[in-house]
């Protein structure tokens, strides 16, 4: 099969089969990412218009089996400790599956808020690793829970501000180099908090636009290789800044499509590599932002279907490319 | 997964691999189950600790097991121990994670565990007031700086390592002189001008960037850094001086999009802030011409160049 088009039926069956890989060692070695993987798979399916391809009840039961009763958050897998990364995924799945009644909102909000540090950043769990990624997880989750009102917004924005670099981008902590994934989390968190005035749009837009390489793909930092997952990190940030036209959409679309596995389905980091669900969702998400025909609109701020976010009244002011006709 | 080539095994090869993995999977699952059960039972024994070593060796990303390991250290192994024994325990942890880092330099959880250990190195061996009062701490943090620099030699763009290095420098019991730090980043930048991570540690400096501009004009890092040095409110003199220098470089490299883009940017600044003191017509004409050329040279970003042209038009109206 040619990779000049998005092979939706193949990707759907690839995602459906992910849970059947129990005789594959890699499957077990990635259990610390299981709940995230379920969220990636579900979101990819939803953007391809096939959310029904995985059983809803089974998924909700799995999410609930990851609940860490001691901490009051989700772990990545039954028996694993609660962590912000898994907690956000768990909440996102429950929102997308319209099953929020299963969640103890007070407890999980308390868990999230307990992880904010005096500097304003968030730790991922009680053991204290800090990173702007966790700050985004907290802001996104609290927003979905309707509990942003409990957050010290000034302190939170203050930390993001202190991570802004001379290139207009943001790093993982104060003084850390800009990286497209960190740019996404900081810009998206600012969008949720209504504080995009903290972004130097011209400089950051320039930096982001220069992430596109001659083969059409995007890298995450200067002088690095292209990778499909940056299609999402860079594009989501560009769409929040309303600067998606600053890159060549056609060339990027072709690059993402060329990283598909035309036999087994799924998308890889680059053409000819092994596929995984992480690059599959971020490839599909990128294509949605680029207006690829037949896909469902993705909300780049929350990385969830736009419709779901609109229904909650949370839509921010971003701009993707218009959806193209077939 | 990053950078793993896709191979399509024959059904026989696939079956053989599954056979081979079957016992590994069983072993791994049995070990995880044993550990998670012990964790539930609040088992803080030496045995439990050894099990976590075995598992983390196979899978250093299993964050729950790192958490459990720290709990065992706190609630089990360091109970009723002397400071010296605790220092030894933590030193062993640093050795154990060093091995893990060598094969997995980008796993957050390992860096995080080292951080945790480092912060718990006790005072000693000397008593308070003696020279060696923080000897253990000093040697642990010195060693840490050495380790992180080794990893940066292997990959100068590992941003986890740079972040960690910054953390170590900030936390050292005896701070390192700034001059040493400047020498280190200079060395790293000169080894590779595109080393953005090292740029990043620098304070403002025009000479270094001017040098880099000539040596490696195709590297965005240099131009972004230059723009930051110039800032948003520059004097006419500074802008004209920099434009002249870049013009000269453009003479040698007539296709350089970075030169053209930078001249456009600084010219727009001149037109915006110093319109009364410059030849507006000539500058506008030149900027328009460069923008047109940029659209041809760098078509991926044509829309951005068009928007810059529109800004120029608004500025002049
Ligand atoms: Zn990737």
TrEMBL record, chain A:
Enzymatic reactions: geranylgeranyl diphosphate + L-cysteinyl-[protein] = S-geranylgeranyl-L-cysteinyl-[protein] + diphosphate
Keyword Metal-binding among UniProt keywords: yes
Annotated protein name in UniProt: Geranylgeranyl transferase type-2 subunit beta
Assembly mode: Heterodimer of an alpha and a beta subunit.
All copies of domain Prenyltransferase alpha-alpha toroid, residue ranges: 9-304
InterPro entries in the record: PGGT1B-like, Prenyltrans, Ptb1, Terpenoid_cyclase/PrenylTrfase
GO annotations of cellular component type: Rab-protein geranylgeranyltransferase complex
Automatic annotation (TrEMBL), chain B:
GO terms, biological process: prenylation
UniProt keyword annotation of Kinase present: no
EC number assigned by the record: 2.5.1.60
Matching SUPFAM superfamilies: Protein prenylyltransferase (SSF48439)
Molecular function GO terms recorded: Rab geranylgeranyltransferase activity
GO CC entries: Rab-protein geranylgeranyltransferase complex
Pfam families to which the protein is assigned, alphabetical: PPTA
Enzyme class, UniProt record, top EC level: transferase
Chemical reaction(s) catalysed: geranylgeranyl diphosphate + L-cysteinyl-[protein] = S-geranylgeranyl-L-cysteinyl-[protein] + diphosphate
Keywords in alphabetical order: Prenyltransferase, Repeat, Transferase
Similarity-based family: Belongs to the protein prenyltransferase subunit alpha family.
Function field: Catalyzes the transfer of a geranyl-geranyl moiety from geranyl-geranyl pyrophosphate to cysteines occuring in specific C-terminal amino acid sequences.
Protein name: Geranylgeranyl transferase type-2 subunit alpha
Organism, as annotated: Coprinellus micaceus
């Amino acid at each position: 099969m040619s990779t000049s088009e998005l092979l939706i039926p193949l990707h759907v069956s690839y995602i459906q089969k992910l849970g059947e890989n129990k005789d594959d060692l890699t499957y077990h070695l990635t259990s610390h990412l299981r709940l995230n993987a379920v969220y990636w798979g579900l979101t990819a399916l939803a953007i391809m218009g096939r959310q029904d391809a995985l059983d809803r009840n089974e998924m909700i039961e799995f999410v609930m089996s990851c609940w860490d009763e001691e901490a009051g958050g989700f772990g990545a897998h039954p028996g694993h400790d609660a962590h912000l990364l898994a907690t956000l995924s768990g909440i996102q799945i429950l929102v997308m599956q319209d099953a929020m009644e299963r969640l103890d909102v007070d407890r999980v909000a308390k868990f999230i808020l307990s992880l904010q540090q005096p500097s304003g950043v968030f730790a991922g769990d009680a053991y204290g690793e800090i990173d702007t990624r966790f700050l985004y997880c907290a802001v996104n989750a609290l927003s979905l829970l309707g509990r942003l009102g409990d957050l010290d917004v000034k302190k939170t924005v203050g930390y993001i501000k202190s991570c802004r670099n001379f290139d207009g981008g943001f790093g993982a902590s104060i003084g850390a180099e800009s990286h497209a994934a960190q740019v996404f989390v900081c810009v998206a968190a600012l969008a949720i908090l209504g504080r995009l005035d903290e972004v130097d749009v011209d400089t950051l837009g320039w930096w982001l636009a220069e992430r596109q390489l001659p083969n059409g793909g995007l890298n995450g930092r200067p002088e690095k290789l292209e990778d499909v997952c940056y299609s999402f990190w860079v594009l989501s940030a560009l769409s929040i800044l309303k600067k998606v036209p600053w890159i060549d959409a056609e060339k990027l679309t072709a690059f993402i499509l060329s990283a598909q596995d035309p036999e087994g389905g799924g998308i890889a980091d680059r053409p000819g590599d092994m596929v995984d669900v992480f690059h599959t969702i971020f490839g599909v998400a990128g294509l949605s932002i680029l207006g690829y025909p037949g896909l469902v609109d993705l909300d780049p701020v929350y990385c969830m279907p736009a419709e779901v976010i609109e229904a909650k009244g949370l839509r921010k002011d971003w701009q993707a490319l218009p959806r193209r006709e077939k | 997964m990053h950078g793993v080539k896709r191979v399509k095994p024959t059904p026989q090869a696939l079956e053989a691999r599954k056979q081979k993995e079957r016992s590994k999977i069983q072993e791994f699952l049995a070990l995880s189950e044993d550990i998670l059960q012990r964790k539930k039972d609040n088992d803080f024994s030496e045995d439990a600790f050894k099990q976590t070593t075995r598992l983390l060796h196979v899978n250093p990303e299993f964050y729950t097991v790192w958490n459990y390991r720290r709990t065992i250290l706190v609630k089990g192994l360091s109970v009723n121990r002397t400071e010296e024994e605790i220092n030894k325990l933590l030193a062993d942890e640093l050795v154990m994670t060093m091995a893990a880092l060598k094969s997995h330099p980008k796993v957050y959880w390992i860096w995080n565990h080292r951080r945790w250990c480092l912060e718990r190195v006790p005072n000693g061996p000397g008593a308070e007031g003696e020279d060696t009062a923080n000897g253990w701490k000093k040697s642990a943090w010195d060693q840490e700086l050495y380790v992180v620099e080794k990893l940066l030699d292997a990959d100068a763009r590992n941003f986890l390592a740079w972040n960690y290095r910054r953390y170590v420098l900030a936390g050292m019991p005896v701070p390192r002189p700034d001059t040493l730090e400047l020498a280190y980043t200079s060395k790293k930048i000169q080894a590779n001008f595109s080393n953005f991570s090292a740029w990043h540690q620098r304070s403002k400096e025009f000479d270094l960037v001017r040098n880099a501009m000539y040596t490696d004009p195709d590297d965005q890092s240099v131009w972004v850094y230059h723009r930051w040095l110039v800032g948003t409110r520059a004097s006419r003199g500074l802008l004209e001086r920099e434009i002249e220098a870049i013009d000269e470089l453009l003479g040698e490299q007539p296709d350089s999009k970075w030169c053209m883009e930078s001249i456009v940017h600084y010219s727009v600044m001149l037109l915006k802030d110093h319109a009364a003191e410059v030849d507006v017509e000539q500058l506008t004409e030149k900027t328009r011409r460069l923008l047109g050329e940029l659209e041809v040279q760098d078509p991926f970003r044509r829309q951005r160049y068009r928007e810059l042209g529109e800004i120029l038009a608004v500025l002049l109206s």
